[in-house]
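# nightly structure sweep
# worker-07 picked up a monomer target from the shared queue
# config: single-sequence mode, recycle default, output format = structure tokens
# input follows
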Amino acid sequence: MPATPAWPPASTPRLFLDQPLSDGALLTLDGAQANYLANVMRLKAGDPVRLFDDRTGEWLAETNDAGRRSVRLRITAKLREREAVPDIWLLFAPLKKDRLHYLIEKATELGAARLQPVLTQRSIVDKPNPERLRAHMIEAAEQCDRTALPELADQEKLTAVLANWPEDRALLFADEAGGQPIASVAPGAAAILIGPEGGFTDEERARIRAHPKAVPISLGPRILRAETAAAAALAAWMTLYGDWR
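# output follows
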């Protein structure tokens, strides 16, 4: 007896919509999303689309009509609830465009709950474009099957971040000068702090280490680029304390 094919198929397009979704809702997409579905994926009436909204979970929709400039969809079923996100933040100094986009993409794929640019003395970028960062987060979430987007916090100076740090969250400081293995960190709410390409200044390093919630950690014997350090630290934390266990 032939096996029943999986539904929806693995090739089903998946999109984020910034609006609450519900069973039976009728939606009209235009702009880039309509172009993607109609002209890139070449959907026709009856074809499935997966949707998520960062609020209610993931939904299955059916294409009612796919024109050149708009696509009409009807939601037919709920596929799953919004996921529970591990309580890990990533704080990073702004990087040049391509490296920053890589960092945002990988942090989203790895499951970070919150992303925040932090201005340091050696930062080479004044302030990244938050709309562009959000667009990269959304694209990564669409590809990796996340149903919850990371929160994108406003950029702050390192001094302000340290002054306002929450008392119930560990600050895991990836220090090139060395620290304890991440496996020795106590479980619980945490954030990973990654410095700029030139590293933290001696003054900044001393200020971070003096903070009562700071835990200097080592990421191994090699000096890592900032975006590599971010991905490595998140992967290690997810393996030990997150949803990779």
